[in-house]
Design a protein that fits this description.
The N and C termini lie far apart (about 65 Å). The chain is globular. The model has no long low-confidence stretch (mean pLDDT about 90). With about 600 residues, the protein is of the alpha+beta class. Strands 6-9-10-22-21-20-17-11 form an 8-stranded mixed β-sheet, sandwiched between helices. Strands 1-2-3-5-4 form a 5-stranded mixed barrel. Helix 4 runs antiparallel to helix 6, helix 4 crosses helix 17 and helix 5 packs parallel to helix 16.
């Protein structure tokens, strides 16, 4: 028998009444009811109520213990009275009559309350993360994460994928973010990089003849924190397949994603095949390449309605190349005037001159822009944006990039303020990303997404098309406005690879040197292949309904990429620096 427990704290039921048992755990709560003293004992599995009602050494010991003491109790399982049953706790029909108690670990004054975090700073929570993880919700999130990963592994293996681990120490690669570098002791002046993703290795596995690969891969990127991105490291379901098209990749991962969300959430999940939305349509109709499809509102281009109209502000803008975006909202005609005025003030905060709108209320049309549009233009507008007939139409005018962004934010706000968004999980694929983009600061053409993607049209498109018009076989899977994954059909042809990188400013020698392993491998034959990499942290965050990704990671860094618990990053000794042949050239401290 285990010397600390015969059962765990979530295990005992009414069928165990009369048994003599031993439990160990943390003192969750202690309650003094005069003649009775109650101790709620907690471990990883649950909470069991223990009680003592006699005088003596055990009672005096119980009186001294405090919350979070670690103790062992020996006692008899007894039934609770009917009025004392706790139906919300699986062990709520029984309690342990304490006969002996042993303190395993006493506790100093706690720096945070296990019961609540409402008054705690993130700094305190992360500094004492080992205590923070004792909280029920955070503890459940980590268990949920483990179960989701286990289920993903089972589903991928069932689909014929082979789990293979790829190296952590590798070479630096332009993946779109800064690398974490690791100095080499044996090779002075040279550095390893922690992988931003297993991109090249998984492609090399396809070259090596493995047909379907996956792993729960750690990825390292030196980038800023945000609610759905943890700085430093994150994990993804990384997978790759040979002899596949884009649709084959979608067909492989959609059932896995769907089943995971159905298995671990009570919310509705959009069925597969998931919707396909082109990158251009996503920006036009949703104002974002990460559309939240829970929101039914659609953005329309209505520049044609205002072109050559008497509303000079919009007509002149359209003539000069700007765009007009419109959002129609059924039922918004019933909103008070203050609703429209507040929206107008909100738009001004986004550095826009104001918000135009027209209200279609039965046979009456009103609003500040009505007088500038004739009946023909108004009818065309209503048919395009408000097919149901009644409602309000809101307008944003500006450069294409700015109008798309502000219209997207307005769509979000209208959906939330008017309670239009559904409560389930809505998935879609965003496809046909541009292969290249123009750096507005330098004027240089750069890869817009993944440099290892196959351009649509292959070599011919690279040779004959304007680079900014070339589409790539790149795709993102999006859920509720959160990008879960990026993926692509890969560029597996050496000559196409050289040309693609040439357009992005890499000469042939540089490309061959920077991607030596992959380029060399392609010389010996590479099958067409592609894959994807849904983010584990983001999947768990969505299913757990947490607003921050740090709530589903056991030991996250803070927003400044620091581990406050382990004091990392930290200084190292001169001896360590000397072994690595490194001298520090630190920025001067501000006085």
């Amino acid at each position: 028998m285990n010397i600390y427990r015969s059962h765990n704290c979530g295990e005992l039921r009414k069928s165990n009444v009369g048994e003599v048992v031993k439990l160990s755990g943390w003192v969750h709560k202690k309650r003094d009811h005069g003649s009775l003293l109650f101790v709620d004992l907690r471990d990883h599995y649950g909470v069991t109520q223990c009680v003592i009602d006699s005088d003596g050494d055990v009672l005096r010991l119980v009186e001294k213990i405090r919350p979070e003491y670690i103790i062992t109790v020996d006692g008899t399982v007894v039934s609770r009275s009917t009025d004392a049953v706790n139906g919300e706790n699986p062990t709520g029909e029984i309690e342990i009559q304490i006969q002996r108690l042993t303190v395993l670990s006493a506790v100093e004054n706690l720096p945070l309350s296990i019961g609540s975090v409402s008054d705690l700073s993130e700094e305190t929570r992360l500094k004492y993360r080992f205590l923070d993880l004792r909280r029920e919700q955070l503890h459940k999130n980590i268990v949920l994460r483990s179960n989701i990963i286990a289920s993903i592994r089972e589903k991928m293996r069932r689909s014929g994928f082979l789990e293979i681990n790829t190296p952590i120490l590798t070479s630096s690669s332009p993946e779109g973010a800064r690398d974490f570098l690791v100095p080499s002791r044996l090779h002075p002046g040279q550095f390893y990089a922690l992988p931003q993703a297993p991109q090249q290795f998984k492609q090399l596995l396809m070259v090596a003849g493995f047909d379907k690969y996956f792993q729960i891969a750690p990825c390292f990127r030196d980038e800023d924190s945000r609610a759905d991105r943890s700085p430093g490291e994150f994990y993804q379901l990384d997978f790759e397949m040979s002899f596949v098209t884009q649709e084959d990749v979608f067909s492989a991962i959609e059932p896995v994603i769907y089943e995971i969300f159905k298995e671990f959430s009570q919310r509705s999940v959009s069925s597969y095949p998931f919707r396909r939305i082109t990158y251009n349509d996503a920006l036009l109709h949703y104002g974002s390449d990460k559309p939240d499809l829970r929101n039914p509102l659609i953005i329309y281009d209505v520049g044609d309605v205002f072109a050559d109209s008497s509303f000079a502000a919009f007509a002149d803008a359209v003539k000069n190349g700007d765009v007009v975006r419109a959002i129609g909202v059924d039922g918004a005609e019933t909103q008070p005037r203050s609703f429209f005025e507040k929206l107008n003030d909100w738009v001004k905060i986004l550095d826009m001159p104001g918000l135009g709108y027209i209200i279609f209320d039965g046979g009456e049309t009103k609003g500040p822009l009505v007088k500038f549009l004739d009946d023909v233009r108004l009818r065309r507008l209503r048919e395009k944006v408000l097919p149901s007939g009644g409602g309000a139409v809101f307008f944003i005018c500006g450069t294409k990039k700015k109008a798309e962004k502000v219209a997207g934010l307005l769509r979000q706000k209208l959906g939330q303020d008017l309670g239009l968004c559904s409560g389930g999980f809505e998935f879609c694929w965003v496809v046909d990303f541009p292969m290249y983009e123009l750096n507005e600061d330098s004027g240089v053409i750069e890869f817009s997404h993944n440099p290892f993607s196959m351009p649509q049209g292959g070599m011919e498109s690279l040779q004959k098309m304007n680079p900014l018009e070339i589409k790539a076989h790149q795709y993102d899977i999006v859920c509720n406005g959160v990008e879960l994954s990026s993926g692509a059909i890969r560029n597996h042809m050496p000559d196409v690879m050289l040309k693609a990188f040439e357009i992005a400013g890499y000469n042939a020698e540089t490309t061959k040197e920077r991607f030596k392993g992959m380029f060399n491998a392609f010389q010996y034959g590479a099958p067409p292949h592609g894959g994807c990499a849904p983010g584990i942290d983001r999947i768990v965050m969505l299913i757990a309904e947490e607003p921050s990704i740090r709530e589903v990671i056991a030991f996250p860094l803070n927003q400044q990429a620091q581990d406050l618990m382990m004091n990392a990053p930290s200084d190292v000794s001169e001896k360590q620096l000397k072994e690595l042949h490194i001298k520090l050239d630190l920025p001067k401290k501000r006085v």
